[in-house]
């Protein structure tokens, strides 16, 4: 395991975190609680110290499962619990709300569900354009000063939005989409984080399973699985992505004797992301973590990967399909 530090957090942060969106079930075709708890325990056994969740994941379910698992496991003083704030819901319809009132309600709900008395990293899930950023930032600063949170984070914020936020509060973390197929923010948000000592948590490191090599032309997704609406998983794009996966898989095998998963996570880390989020809901999915350590991609390797990507996916599709409506507030 490699470790890093997150500003203001006095614990060692593993460079791979367990992402628990799928564990909440919603938008992932359901989930199994027993298996989810074993997955969280397995992650901790393997040396992962960062667990990322959010109130909206399963409308409280993910946080509750994480809370139960951590209560059973102990070692709270070593675990960096990252959760989010600012997405509200009504009848499973979600909307952005990062008002002070909402933040002060959500923190108490999250602390209760997670069964803890502080949260290590508290991230604004999506920028709320209908609330002044100063209001959101000042509310988080109050929570920081009170000790209820240890680090302030945002997620899905642009550079301009981070700068605006930083006028009213310190910023320790930005969580952004980042993987081989979704690298639009490399030169902007990631570069800013690297320059200004904001820790970056990269989400979708495996591009929702596409970069595991397990997807097939006829793969089917169940129930409310978000990949049914992901344009990358639809033709005419899907075949191109699968062909690129094949090339990347060959490179990983022939040049590094590693799996595609190892290459995908190594790439994210070697591009400068502080912590790569790995969405797993079965313990055995985490076995591959051990293949990430002890090697690195150098600049020639990164160029070779770039060549494959440019040749195979000249017009990449971003992760925008996941964004909640920009302006729709509570009806
Ligand atoms: P991800 O990590 O890119 O991919 C998860 C997918 O990879 C799942 O389909 C899972 O399979 C598959 N997988 C994992 N390990 C595998 C293995 N060893 N072999 C084969 N398949 C494997 O996707 P993600 O969950 O979207 O992102 C990770 C985390 O980032 C989330 O859980 C969440 O914490 C965070 N996130 C944050 C935001 C935000 O707006 N801030 C947005 C998205 C995600 P199964 O389907 O079979 O389980």
Automatic annotation (TrEMBL):
Residues 16-309 form the NADP-dependent oxidoreductase domain. It holds the Pfam family Aldo_ket_red. It is an enzyme of class 1 (oxidoreductase). InterPro entries: AKR, AKR_Detox_Biosynth, Aldo/ket_reductase_CS, NAD(P)_OxRdtase_dom_sf, NADP_OxRdtase_dom. Its EC number is 1.1.1.-. One of its GO terms (cellular component) is cytosol. SUPFAM superfamilies: NAD(P)-linked oxidoreductase (SSF51430). Keywords: Oxidoreductase. GO terms for molecular function: oxidoreductase activity. It comes from the Bacteria. This is General stress protein 69. It comes from Parachlamydia acanthamoebae. The lineage of its organism: Bacteria, Pseudomonadati, Chlamydiota, Chlamydiia, Parachlamydiales.
